[in-house]
């Protein structure tokens, strides 16, 4: 099957951590024998002109490559660009919604109209969690008959059980444990300041933040807390191996791939109960918390620290979301669309 992949997030030389989950799925589709052509944005920032260029790139690629199907990640802008490409080449369109693209409907000017255009053109819309499916249908009722749930896949080879002590060598984690880790953007939605407050309330161990964002200065200099910035996905796997517990008590988490990656590494997690995590974090793998309560997050840290490290139950739960399995499910949807 010939697939034109369109995405507004894709890792590049300047931003190797940008949209790694899209690349991982694309690479797996290729390894399963499908032919992929890519039209992507592979850097952060810049003006909205880059989205116009993405649309032009996608249309040209669709006309030249004549794919069997156009497949886009994120409803807007990539989905709208992909809809133009699918119309130009007269081939089917499949979209994947990830979270922010759904929340932007009705919140960002012009997004609702573009989303209706993209979804209207699509044969199928994939949501990465049932929570996100329900949210999309609530905001866009006409999508109801088109939405299927396929979670983001986790790379079970990159994120695998490894020795934590070896990963901690070199002084990255100082003092006594437990060792907590948070991976993601340092912003309000990821709830990083409440997590830092909860860690201080808990009063033991170390907390490392991997990522960057507007709340960086509010976290810097706190006792027991270290900021290491953004890094390539392969290096993130080393930090996950070194921790005891990965924390993601987001105010809202449509899915929560970092949680799955930690679970695949046999690490327990502290996850928000708002959004997708309750769908894949069983009691033996981690703790679900109320993200609005510092006290609840602190209790979650304490409970998760009491779970075993390594944690085989976490790995077992993560294996249900193997990227190879999820790629096969996506391929089935793409093939069904192409057949129509």
Note down, in words, how this protein is organized.
By secondary structure, the protein is α/β, with parallel strands linked by helices. The protein folds into two domains: 2-153 and 322-339, Rossmann fold, CATH 3.40.50; 164-321, 3-Layer(aba) Sandwich (Rossmann fold). The protein is built from 14 helices and twelve strands. It has helices at 20-31, 49-65, 75-89, 100-103, 111-121, 130-139, 164-168, 192-202, 216-219, 233-242, 257-264, 294-305, 312-318, 323-339, and strands spanning 2-7, 35-40, 69-73, 93-97, 124-127, 147-149, 179-183, 206-210, 225-229, 245-248, 268-272, 286-289. The strands form two sheets. Strands 2-1-3-4-5-6 form a six-stranded parallel sheet, sandwiched between helices. A six-stranded parallel sheet has the order 9-8-7-10-11-12, sandwiched between helices. Helix 8 (192-202) links the parallel strand 7 and strand 8 (206-210). The longest helix is centred in the N-terminal third of the chain and has 17 residues, at 49-65. The protein is globular and about 60 Å long. The mean pLDDT is 96.
């Amino acid at each position: 099957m010939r697939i034109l992949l369109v995405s507004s997030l894709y890792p590049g030389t300047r931003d190797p951590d940008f949209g790694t989950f899209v690349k991982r799925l694309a690479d797996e589709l290729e390894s399963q024998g499908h032919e992929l052509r890519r039209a992507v944005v592979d850097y952060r920032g810049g003006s909205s002109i880059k989205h116009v260029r993405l649309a032009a790139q996608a249309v040209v690629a669709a006309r030249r490559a004549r794919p069997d199907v156009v497949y886009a990640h994120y409803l807007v802008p990539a989905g709208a660009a992909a809809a133009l490409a699918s119309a130009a080449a007269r081939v089917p369109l499949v979209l994947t919604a990830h979270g922010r693209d759904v929340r932007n409907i009705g919140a960002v000017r012009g997004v609702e109209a573009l989303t209706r255009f993209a979804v209207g053109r699509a044969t199928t819309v994939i949501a990465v969690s049932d929570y996100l499916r329900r949210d999309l249908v609530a905001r866009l009722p006409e999508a109801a008959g088109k939405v299927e749930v396929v979670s983001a896949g986790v790379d079970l080879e990159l994120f695998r059980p490894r020795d934590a002590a070896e990963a901690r060598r070199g002084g990255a984690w100082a003092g006594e444990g437990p060792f907590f880790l948070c991976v993601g953007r340092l912003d309000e939605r990821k709830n990083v300041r409440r997590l830092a407050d909860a860690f201080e309330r808990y009063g033991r161990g170390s907390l490392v933040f991997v990522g960057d964002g507007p709340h960086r200065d509010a976290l810097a200099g706190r006792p027991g807390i270290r900021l290491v910035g953004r890094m390539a996905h392969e290096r993130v796997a080393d930090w996950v191996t070194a921790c005891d517990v990965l924390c993601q008590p987001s105010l809202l988490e449509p899915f929560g791939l970092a949680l799955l990656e930690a679970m695949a590494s046999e690490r327990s997690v502290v996850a928000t109960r708002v959004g997708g995590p309750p769908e894949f974090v069983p009691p033996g793998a981690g703790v679900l918390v109320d993200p609005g309560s510092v006290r609840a997050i602190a209790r979650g840290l304490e409970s998760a620290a009491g779970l075993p490290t390594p944690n085989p139950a976490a790995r077992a739960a993560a294996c249900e979301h193997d990227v190879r399995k999820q790629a096969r499910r996506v391929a089935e949807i793409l093939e069904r669309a192409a057949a129509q």
